Amino acid sequence: MSSDPSPFFPPELEREIFEIAAYFHPETVSSLVLVSRRVYDWIDGVKYTTVTSKGAEYSCSARHLLQAIWSNSKSASFFHHHVRHVFIADTPINDIQKILSVCTGIQDLLISIHVESITPTIAALRPRRLSLFWLCVLDYTNPRQPMFSFLTHFHMLDFLSVAMSTVPLPSFLAQLPVLTHFAAFWNPPVGDGFPVVARKILTACEALRVFVFHPPWEPKLQSLPSNDDVRVVYMHLGRGYRHQDGWLAQTRGGIDFWARADAFVEKKRHREIQPSSFVFNILPWLQFLTSLFSFSLLDRTRGWHPRFR
Description:
There is one protein chain. The chain is α/β, with parallel strands linked by helices. The protein folds into two domains: 1-45; 49-308, Leucine-rich repeat, LRR (right-handed beta-alpha superhelix) (Alpha-Beta Horseshoe). It contains 14 helices and ten strands. The protein has helices spanning 11-24, 29-32, 37-43, 62-70, 76-82, 93-102, 119-123, 160-164, 169-174, 194-204, 243-251, 257-269, 286-292, 297-304, and strands at 50-52, 60-61, 85-88, 108-111, 129-132, 153-159, 181-185, 210-214, 232-236, 279-281. It has a ten-stranded parallel beta sheet. Helix 10 (194-204) links the parallel strand 7 and strand 8 (210-214). It is globular. Mean pLDDT is 81; it is low at 283-309.
């Protein structure tokens, strides 16, 4: 790391340049922090913004984050401020609890394993996006819980019937104060009551903009119950879809299944496709949606860069 020479640009502009470079090109962070002490101070936290179990796609690995936490070299406020997106898969329960208890500023949390014991830790967070099994929140199904205060995107990784067996789901979802997107899995062979449940949810949740159902396999069109509400999307993710890839892309302003569903619903609203269309084949639409969501750098920073939140 060099000494701290005078900046070539106004400090505010120089900082913005380095932060944007680090945020959208995380693979460069390890080199950028060596430029000068002030650059290190500006962007050291960026490498902890997105955390995955194994450190995929230049994200911070859970192990690396835990080492930083255990070293006591950084304050609790550092992790609260910088750790924003966390994808947990094959991670020990104790490690998950440690990460969630320290990184209390998480805005986007996905837990792809059944972990009932961490429910109190999750309940202390205030995420905007939450993807997990219903078991993880089973003891906290009061929609007035603070953990749901800012939740806009709720992805339930169970079959819809799992939640329906424990709570009146339409009422629960309707009382979440800012919920706009909901997704769950649905099993067609045992889905006789699905049209009724879907209608109740759509009627109760007037603010819901997108309602996604994932069948576990690609169903035949005639086996799906019809629905003329433009908000409904049946989305079979398919064997070629890797959830972590889409999740990582959206952390940097890219495309995940939510963005694809949003675009599909918007095309229905504008009658670019039939409003009654409800089956979304995710893979052929990738090229179209890539162009649809190719924001300018300024637009992306306004929507995704930490300093614009």
